[in-house]
């Protein structure tokens, strides 16, 4: 009888060998191994015998069986950790270094090395990070000291517009997801404090559609900067059409205001330009655990220069951020030269400035109605001057005094 056992989990740690057996009775040898609970696997017939695998510790136990069954063995392969270590026994420093590196990675995995924010728009990452620093939540701290649930609560309590937070630790990263409240959907507690819609410019009201609040202007009304357009105080009338009380809300309306900007810009024909000479110093940089190391390669002295840096943060996968930054820094030599615009280049520069100004208006959902800006030259100066008429939505809100508070203050 031939017993064939398929060993799925190869014993890499203890080591195993591949044998080629030949002789009088290989079947008897296999039965003896099975009877003494010696594992054999992947038994395949080969030239005048069989190939099979056996744990390396069982080879010595099988020596009596070789004589009894009259077989000869030949070791074809040796696999597993013991043979690997024996093969590279003269490279102890390599293994010590590898083991030290793994221990170092494990120690680093116990700390936070990156804090990221997702979903924040009204509050910048720098503002949120500063608040975390006040609570001693910083990069380099042990992960075990971070209480995610408490941090979620403190963020919601500290920032009124944060409605929901999720704080989780992934690898060496602290990931904070935020959902901010919409300015047109305040909580009820905020509605108790009235807000007015006011005009940001002097101009004329083109259209107004009020959703909440008391409108104080209508289409065609001329307004000055800071004028209240929609009040957050809502008068309540009785049956005799008399005001008996006030309700309060956050004013909300679709208002388009037309205003005029007096635009003026000057560009000197003579100017100083900073140019690169092509000479540069290169430095190799490494930042490990917030300590910076710099190696300058053949540095040269420059009277004037600018710095360019290229840095990479090392990581093992998406979430295992390491406290290691490597990169190259270039100190590029520059010189200042006096240059003079031609009328063509000066006009191009003036138009670029104007385009940037108009684009800023468009980014605020404004509409350019009229552009009468002209470009002319006076002495050594290129001048852009004229008026720009735009229509822009009114979004500016300011706190409003409740009517009762205003009346009490006048008494």
Mean pLDDT: 85
CATH architecture of the domain at 16-86: 2-Layer Sandwich
Low-confidence stretches: 1-8, 183-191, 405-411
| Biggest pleated-sheet summary | 6 strands, antiparallel
Distance between the first and last residues' Cα: 113 Å
CATH topology of the domain at 16-86: Alpha-Beta Plaits
- Shape verdict: elongated
Query: Structural class from helices and strands?
Result: alpha+beta
- By DSSP (H or I, 4+ residues per run), the number of helices equals 9
Roughly how much helix do the residues carry, as a percent range?
Answer: 10-25%
Radius of gyration in whole Å, from Cα? 40 Å
Q: CATH superfamily assignment of the domain at 16-86?
A: ACT domain
Let me know the number of strands. 23
CATH class of the domain at 16-86, named Alpha Beta
What amount of the residues lies in strands?
over 45%
Notable characteristics:
six-stranded antiparallel beta sheet, disordered C terminus, 411 residues, Alpha-Beta Plaits, disordered N terminus, four-stranded antiparallel beta sheet, elongated, alpha+beta, Ubiquitin-like (UB roll), 23 strands
Summarize the structure.
The radius of gyration is 40 Å and the shape is elongated.
Describe this protein's structure.
- With 411 residues, the chain is an alpha+beta fold.
- Among the domains are: 16-86, Alpha-Beta Plaits (2-Layer Sandwich); 114-180, Roll (Ubiquitin-like (UB roll)), CATH 3.10.20.310; 263-270 and 341-393; 273-338, no CATH class.
- Helices cover 23% and strands 46% of the residues.
- The protein contains 9 helices and 23 strands.
- Strands 9, 11, 15, 20, 21 and 22 form a 6-stranded antiparallel sheet that branches. The chain has a 4-stranded antiparallel sheet with strand order 2-3-1-4. The protein has a 4-stranded antiparallel sheet with strand order 10-12-8-23, with no helix packed on it.
- β21 and β22 form a beta hairpin.
- α1 packs antiparallel against α2.
- The longest helix has 21 residues, at 343-363.
- The protein is elongated, with a radius of gyration of 40 Å.
């Amino acid at each position: 009888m031939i017993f064939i056992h398929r060993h799925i989990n190869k014993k890499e740690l203890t080591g195993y060998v591949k044998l080629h057996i030949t002789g009088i009775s290989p079947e008897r040898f296999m039965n003896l191994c099975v009877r003494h609970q010696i594992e054999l696997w992947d038994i395949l017939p080969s030239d005048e015998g069989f190939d099979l695998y056996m744990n390396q510790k069982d080879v010595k136990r099988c020596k009596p069986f070789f004589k009894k069954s009259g077989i000869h063995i030949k070791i074809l392969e040796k696999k597993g950790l013991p043979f690997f270590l024996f093969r590279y026994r003269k490279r102890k420093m390599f293994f010590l270094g590898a083991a030290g590196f793994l221990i170092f990675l494990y120690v680093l995995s116990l700390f936070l090395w990156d804090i990221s924010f997702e979903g924040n728009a009204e509050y910048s990452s720098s503002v949120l990070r500063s608040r975390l620093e006040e609570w001693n939540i910083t990069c380099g701290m042990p992960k075990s000291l971070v209480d995610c649930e408490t941090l979620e609560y403190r963020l919601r309590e500290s920032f009124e517009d944060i409605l929901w937070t999720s704080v989780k630790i992934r690898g060496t990263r602290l990931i904070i997801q935020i959902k901010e409240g919409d300015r047109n959907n305040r909580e009820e507690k905020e509605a108790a404090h009235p807000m007015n819609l006011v005009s940001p410019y002097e101009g004329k009201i083109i259209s107004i559609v009020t959703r909440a609040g008391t409108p104080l202007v209508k289409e065609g009304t001329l307004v000055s900067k800071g004028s209240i357009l929609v009040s957050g105080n809502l008068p309540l009338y009785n049956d005799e059409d008399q005001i008996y009380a006030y309700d309060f809300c956050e004013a909300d309306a679709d208002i388009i205001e037309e205003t005029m900007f007096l635009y003026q810009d000057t560009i000197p024909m003579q100017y100083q330009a900073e140019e690169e000479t092509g000479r540069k110093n290169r430095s190799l940089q490494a930042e490990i655990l917030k300590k910076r190391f710099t190696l300058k390669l053949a540095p040269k002295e420059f009277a004037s220069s600018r710095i360019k840096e290229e840095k990479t943060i090392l990581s093992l996968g998406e979430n295992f951020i390491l406290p290691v930054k490597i990169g190259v820094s270039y100190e590029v030599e520059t010189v200042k030269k006096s240059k003079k615009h031609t009328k063509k280049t000066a006009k191009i520069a003036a138009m670029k400035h104007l385009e940037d100004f108009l684009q800023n208006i468009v980014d605020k959902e404004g509409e350019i109605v009229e552009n009468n800006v002209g470009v002319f030259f006076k002495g050594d100066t290129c001048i852009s001057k004229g008026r720009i008429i735009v229509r822009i939505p009114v979004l500016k809100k300011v706190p409003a005094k409740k009517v009762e508070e205003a009346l009490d203050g006048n008494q």
